[in-house]
């Protein structure tokens, strides 16, 4: 039985705080996620939709952002995206993610897409290079977007064998720098935190309230129904403003990430060797 029909570029969208109905999402997601090709969207189960993209570009775009904010009827619905897996389980998020890596000080004689992809394969599945790398306008560093398994080890450098005209092979180490590695908890099977930050594994991380805390009886509180309603409205407006600010910040940072990603070196050891 085939499990790959129209699923080569399939992505799972997860809504955690409500979502528009599926008929609305058919129109909203392609437009607000800026998808260029044909797309099919269906309901997987409660809170989850399956987005079948038709192009690699749309697939990468959907998985490259940590969060989409789907606007509908004066509200924003956060949607996170993950690579679809044949063994999809709504209780477990996949450990597959997309990250940018940089290969600084790459020699010009191996600064081509095929070689760069071969080097990036030491980390994961290379998907695309950035525009400056493609046009060779920034030869000081090659940048590649790679599909990785967050449960794997991430090498800090890769060994290259460069063949000279005399036939002699000279080895050169190429550093690998990671713009950002998402956190993933092996225990919870969720993105956003690791084992050291897991509340399930470390109950002491919860901030416990002091049982002997003295309550200030002079503190003003809402004592009437009207006051309570006013407070509720103020809280709703505050949440809306925070989400709007977060979306603007995300849009600005998303552009900066593509052009000037902050390089963060992976702390795990590991090497790979390639020869040309």
UniProtKB/TrEMBL annotation:
InterPro entries cross-referenced by the UniProt entry: At4g02000-like, DUF4283
A Pfam family reported for this protein in Swiss-Prot or TrEMBL: DUF4283
Domain called DUF4283: residue spans: 4-92
Name of this chain's protein: DUF4283 domain-containing protein
């Amino acid at each position: 039985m085939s499990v790959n029909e129209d699923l080569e570029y399939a992505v799972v969208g997860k809504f955690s705080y409500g979502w528009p109905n599926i008929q609305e999402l058919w129109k909203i997601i392609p437009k607000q996620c800026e998808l260029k090709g044909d797309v099919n969207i269906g309901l997987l189960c409660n809170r989850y939709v399956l987005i079948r993209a038709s192009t690699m570009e749309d697939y990468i775009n959907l998985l490259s952002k940590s969060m989409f904010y789907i606007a509908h009827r004066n509200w924003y619905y956060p949607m996170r995206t993950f690579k679809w897996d044949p063994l999809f389980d709504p209780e477990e998020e996949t450990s597959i993610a997309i990250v940018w890596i940089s290969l600084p000080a790459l020699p010009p004689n191996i600064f081509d897409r095929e070689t760069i992809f071969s080097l990036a394969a030491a980390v994961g599945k290379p998907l695309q290079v950035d525009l400056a790398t493609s046009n060779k306008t920034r030869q000081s560093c090659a940048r590649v977007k790679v599909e990785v398994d967050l449960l794997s080890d991430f090498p800090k450098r890769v060994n290259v064998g460069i063949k000279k005209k005399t036939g002699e092979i000279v080895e050169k180490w190429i550093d690998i720098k990671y713009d950002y590695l998402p956190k993933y908890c092996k225990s919870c099977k969720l993105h956003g935190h690791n084992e050291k930050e897991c509340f399930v594994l470390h109950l002491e991380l919860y901030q416990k309230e002091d049982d002997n805390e003295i309550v200030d009886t002079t503190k003003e509180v809402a004592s009437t129904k009207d006051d309570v309603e006013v407070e509720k409205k103020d809280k709703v407006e505050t949440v809306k403003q925070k989400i709007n600010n977060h979306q603007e910040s995300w849009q600005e940072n998303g552009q900066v990430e593509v052009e000037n990603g902050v390089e963060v070196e992976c702390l795990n050891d590991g090497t790979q060797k390639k020869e040309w």
